[in-house]
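Appendix B. One record, verbatim.
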Amino acid sequence: MQAKLFAWTNCSVAEFMLKLPFPPPFAVVRAGILQLKSLDLFDKWEDLVELGAYCLALPIVELSYAMMIVYAHLFKCLQPILIIVSTLIIGDPFQSKSNVCCLSEFKQRLASNKNSDHFVFYQLYLQWEQSIDKKQFCINHNIKYFRMKQIDCFKKSIIDFLININFSNFFYSNNDEIIDLNENSSCWPLIQAILVRCLPQNLLIYDQQWLSNRNESVIFDQSSILYNIQWNEQEKIRFAICDDLIRSIKGFFIGKYCTLIEDIILLFFGTINDTLKLNDYQIILSDNNNNLFKLRTKLNACIKRKLQSLGCDNDTTNDYHSFNLLVKIFSSIK
């Protein structure tokens, strides 16, 4: 996406990339452009949209993580997203050569039946931060102390950067009140929704086995909280999101850092692609939530309209009531 900033007028990204001294393969460039369009960072003319511009303003190379921070500002759940993003960028803080049983039990306690590696990272950081002796906490729970320090430093550096550029002012420029950007941090389904919105290419569907968006077989990494869960083939359709898919030497993919996704979240934030087709929506839908599906278009319009008006002096849009309604719906999820 940075190439768009350097390309001259009326020059497509693909054309600019192919004129570089050592251009990447054309197929790779086109795949990247299609992914940027699917993330709503490019429009159909391959021009940078507002969301893409705000992602480029952040000092984070991974666009999906930058998108998470933008959406965290919109939905006022900044702290958990910052912790999750910092952990994903720095790396897994758990000791790889520790007692597997003890580590698994500790992760289960952190997960609190949320079935989410991202929630485990979030809770781990909170407990580590609140501990009196942080080094002893890491020793007791087989955690890499210096990795946790790196995560903490990275998180604080992002916060300092956001404060220095007054990033939140773009979202709440016409509000004289003090804005609590962590107002909805306790609403975990909202965090799931942001993960789905920013990582649509890594959406998994369970149909007798876990499949990627290209219908390729996926298994969870052994370190994942979902690895030992037994899935009943007779149960309803299931969805999950993972941070990364790695092809193994045996041909299948391994999903790292995964979260089980509530069905209703996909009604609002899911992307209709090869994994999630319209008939899958019909499976998710019931008589009780058909009206919720109708709100999907309205919500997406509110998000797009708000992103287009960010930072404008004449920003009169007031779509946050729609966002608050979404938070109430997600908060009711058990």
